[in-house]
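W.,

You were right to be curious about this one. When I first looked at the sequence I had no strong expectations either way, so I just let the prediction run and decided to look at it fresh. Below is the sequence, 176 residues in total, followed by the output.
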Amino acid sequence: MMKKLSTISLVLLLCFGCEKFDIDNPDVAVFVKQLKNGTYDCYKKGETGENLWLLMPKFTTNHISSLIEFANDTSHISDFPVNPNSSRTPFPEGREYFILGECLLWTVEGIRTGYGYGSLDPFLIDTALAESERYKGLNGDEILIVRDIYKNWWDNYKDGDWNDTNPLEETSYRWF
């Protein structure tokens, strides 16, 4: 009897201790937590059930503020839902990881444009740099600058023409 109770308790603890992610009704905090600890696993499945690519949650305008707030985190992450239409590597030259804040801003850009993805690949370039340097992407400090640009854009346009106003228009930063 005691062994049975222990087993049931363990199963209940495991079930209630897990955070299942609802891709159709996403929670930004859970998404970020799962990205950071490597447990985000909502995949597009192939015909035989194999994982093809990570799916982008169905974020909406209501998530923009939270996405921007969490974009102040420049942690390196290994996986992120990328645009399935891109056949390129999703990283800038010389980098083999995603930067969380940059990816979250890319997600905001996808909401703003209505395409679901901010561009083909989830990284920023600085067009003011020489061509040989610009495709190396941005560092964490520069991503925080872009985050502030997006925060100001949202603060100024959230009640108006937010989707037709490009936050990066007056800057040299562009999504690749």
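Here's what jumped out at me. The longest strand covers residues 51-54. And, maybe more interesting for your project: The CA atoms of residues 4 and 68 lie 47 Å apart.

Coffee later to discuss?

I.
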